[in-house]
């Protein structure tokens, strides 16, 4: 739960220990509306002038559904890499769905290494757009992650080692250094922290529209007030997925070869409108935040503050205002399904297995430890032959799944060995 006394400044409205009371307060006090970005004051960043398409074409190569920041980013990147004949469809107005609700934070601490790489790439891209004159609200505020427990501090130290190896500017802070940056914090409740100087902020709506302008300049057609109602497919030969033929919209059908679903909160619903239906594993969740009025004597160089132990953040905005976001803890289920018999995820694994048999599966293995073993002669092959239970001496390009054994012949682990070269 949110601790009422973590921050001594009462402006942060974190006085209640009840999540339900906090949830109610945050919902009532949210100061922005559907026309204003919560990240920075409205109209701080001028939106670019866009030349949109009025009439939907009868056919194209690629259709993108969704005019939020994801859809417009996809359109920009595809056009940047040379794709042609792209049409983006938005059911209302660009960036009017959930994009404007984004806090616009760029955090290098992520669940997987590939997500951290994406954040690093995004920072470089947004900085380039900023330097080119696109007013996207890019600001390198930095991010300060607070540890309120010894376990959290240990986790932050591990994350520090990972992102430091990726040449991301970061620093472990003791309590005194945290106090210098956050003079209002009650230091007796913290163990330490991690400052990531490369963490950043952007204003999501101007950024999305900047992507749209750059995509239009590359030939992408963008159509507003055009909702996708159904995706039509045709059967292929046995063992292959159905092929996209056309998309039905509120302005008429459009033939296409490739369809990309970037509809965010509505992606799952749109998936079910396909023929046949597609199960998209997304779930909309309530997001609770508020924006304060300007606070007197507010720290000028305050980073974005994250408290993962209590599940909230403080984000400095323009004019000494603050965006506060909080997340409710998941409730524990009253009844749990036991493990006797088939597990509850049995049918899910069955569908995944069948999907892998029919098509090409991309499995995220970035969290696995990877070692590259080389030698000038056969010694590396002989060593692995002795260490592993399976035959490693296979042709170049082979993937061998094997166990590694200890000196008593006991099973230590299982791993995948990819032979990249002779030795």
Automatic annotation (TrEMBL):
Residues 62-328 form the FAD dependent oxidoreductase domain. InterPro entries: FAD-dep_OxRdtase, FAD/NAD-bd_sf, GCVT_N, TrmE/GcvT-like. One of its GO terms (cellular component) is mitochondrial matrix. Residues 337-422 form the GCVT N-terminal domain. This is FAD dependent oxidoreductase domain-containing protein.
């Amino acid at each position: 739960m949110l601790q009422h006394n973590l921050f001594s400044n009462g402006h942060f409205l974190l006085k209640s220990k009840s999540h339900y009371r906090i949830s109610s307060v945050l919902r009532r006090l949210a100061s922005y509306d559907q026309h204003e970005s919560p990240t920075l004051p409205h109209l701080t960043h001028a939106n670019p002038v866009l030349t949109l398409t009025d009439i939907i074409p009868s056919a194209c190569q690629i259709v993108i559904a969704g005019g939020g920041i994801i859809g417009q980013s996809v359109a920009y990147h595809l056009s940047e890499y040379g794709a042609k004949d792209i049409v983006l469809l938005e059911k209302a107005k660009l960036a009017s769905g959930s994009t404007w609700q984004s806090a616009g934070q760029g955090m290098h601490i992520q669940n997987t290494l590939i997500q951290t790489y994406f954040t690093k790439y995004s920072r470089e891209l947004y900085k380039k757009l900023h330097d080119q004159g696109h007013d996207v609200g890019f600001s390198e505020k930095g991010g300060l992650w607070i540890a309120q427990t010894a376990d959290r501090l240990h986790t932050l130290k591990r994350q520090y080692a990972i992102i430091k190896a990726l040449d991301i500017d970061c620093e472990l802070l003791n309590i005194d250094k945290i106090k210098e940056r956050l003079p209002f914090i009650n230091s007796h409740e913290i163990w330490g922290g991690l400052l990531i100087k490369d963490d950043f902020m952007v204003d999501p709506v101007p950024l999305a529209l900047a992507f749209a302008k750059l995509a239009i300049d590359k030939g992408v057609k963008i159509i507003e007030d055009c909702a996708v109602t159904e995706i039509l497919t045709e059967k292929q030969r046995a063992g292959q997925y159905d092929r996209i033929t056309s998309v039905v919209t509120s302005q008429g059908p459009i033939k296409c070869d490739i369809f990309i679903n970037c509809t965010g909160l509505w992606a799952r619903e749109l998936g079910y409108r396909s023929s046949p239906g597609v199960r998209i594993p997304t779930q909309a969740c309530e997001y609770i935040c508020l924006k304060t009025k300007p606070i007197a004597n507010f720290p000028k160089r305050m980073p974005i503050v994250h408290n993962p132990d209590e599940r909230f953040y403080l984000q400095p905005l323009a004019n000494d205002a603050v965006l506060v976001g909080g997340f409710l803890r998941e409730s524990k289920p009253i009844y749990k399904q036991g493990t006797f018999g088939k597990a509850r995820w049995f049918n899910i694994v069955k569908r995944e297995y069948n999907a892998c048999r029919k098509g090409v599966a991309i499995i995220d293995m970035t969290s696995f430890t990877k070692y590259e073993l080389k030698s000038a002669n056969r010694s590396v092959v002989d060593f692995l032959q002795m260490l592993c239970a399976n035959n490693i001496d296979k042709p170049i390009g082979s993937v061998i799944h094997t166990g590694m054994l200890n000196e008593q012949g006991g099973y230590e682990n299982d791993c995948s060995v990819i032979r990249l070269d002779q030795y």
